[in-house]
Amino acid sequence: AKVVIARDPRPSGVIIEKILSEGLAAAGIKVITVGMTATPVLAFCVRKYNADLGVMVSASHNPPEYNGIKFFDSEGRKITEELEEKIEEIIDGGYKPRRKKGGSVTPADGEGDYVRHFSALLKPRISPKRVLLDTANGATSFVAPRLFEALGCVADVIFNDVGGEKINDGCGATAPEAFIEAAKKGKYDAGFCFDGDGDRVVAYCGGRVLDGDHMVYITAKYFLESGELSEKTIVGTIMSNRGVEDAVLRSGLKFVRTSVGDKYVAYEMKRLQAELGGEASGHVIIARYQNTGDGVLAGAVLLACDSAKGVNAYDDITDYPQTSGDILTTHEKVAEYKARQKEFAPMLEIIQRESGGRLVVRPSGTEPKIRIMAEAPTQAAAYLAVAKARLCILGGLGNV
């Protein structure tokens, strides 16, 4: 078996990468390490090196004190929940691997391979631009400027401290305010703001701030008008703005929603053989190139759209007002809400109908909170729907 391992710059990632590499090699597995780099680079390398598995040591958009592991299958796609649960069962069962001969640990220039591959594919589509990159003090700090410069662009980089202690701290896709201000003041042709591990992006292009759903639509129109979009289905999530869906439908395309999370988008895309999908939070999946969210690549493709004047497709979209609100509680109350969701459903359905739009209530899978999002014809109606939903849930759960 062959496994590719990468990490983001968090200090804890170094020791985790070392333990994983040595442990897998001791079990007879050939390990390829690509060092500190972005999650989508790892996903690309799994396919490039014909590996069986990819392991990314990262806590993505979360603060520096956290860390985690993402697994990718041989197609560079996040593994299924069923496989995750099976792995956890094996670990909880006290599994002890046996030592085997034949294992090894070999470093590789994953970033170089990624940059060479995608610059060769995309450079003919892109006219030189001046771009601003916010790398979130994270994993794209090297690969993003390398790719954009290879595409003939002049790239200025902010928030590119790779010490690991400042990753996602007041910067990146989850806090893009400083980036947006710098992009406007600098009069850049475009700008891209990534999260800590590089699978999300917020874009600034044509004087507009674009989220993941906007970028998916613009990219779809670009490939549609160039005759390159063979499958006419776009995949979004339950959080995707109705305005984006309306624009997709007006273009003669289909729009399908999944649960929140780029892995759900990726697997629905696989099932439908869709070429494009993503979510507003910044995950953009372009299946002809990658099977997972790739913020750096999505930014490069947006430059191709801009070079073809395709970013004007944004004018097709009239976003519906949305607002969100979290109920901060305990893990126990989140579990209680999950168990009692059917009890809350009728009242939440009434609140949704009264708003004239959509209401999405999601218990967090990792944090002690219940997330609420309302989308309505007016901002006031959206705010009111969130307030009513909060009261409904708080009243039903009691003291949270």
Q: At the first level of CATH, what is the class of the domain at 2-110?
A: Alpha Beta
CATH superfamily of the domain at 2-110: Alpha-D-Glucose-1,6-Bisphosphate, subunit A, domain 3
Average of per-residue pLDDT values: 95
What distance lies between the first and last C-alpha atoms, to the nearest angstrom? 48 Å
Order of helices and strands: EHEHEEHEHEHEHEEEHEHEHEEHEHHEEH
Judging by the overall fold, what is the CATH architecture of the domain at 2-110? 3-Layer(aba) Sandwich
CATH topology of the domain at 2-110: Alpha-D-Glucose-1,6-Bisphosphate, Chain A, domain 3
Number of helices: 13
- The count of strands amounts to 17
Largest sheet: 5 strands, mixed
Q: In what order do the strands lie side by side in the largest sheet?
A: 4-3-1-2-5
Q: Per the principal axes of the C-alpha atoms, what is the gross shape?
A: globular
Helix content: 25-40%
Which stretches are poorly predicted, pLDDT < 50 over at least 5 residues?
A: none
Q: Specify Rg, calculated over alpha carbons.
A: 21 Å
Report the sheet-strand fraction.
Answer: 15-25%
Structural class: alpha/beta
Oligomer: single chain
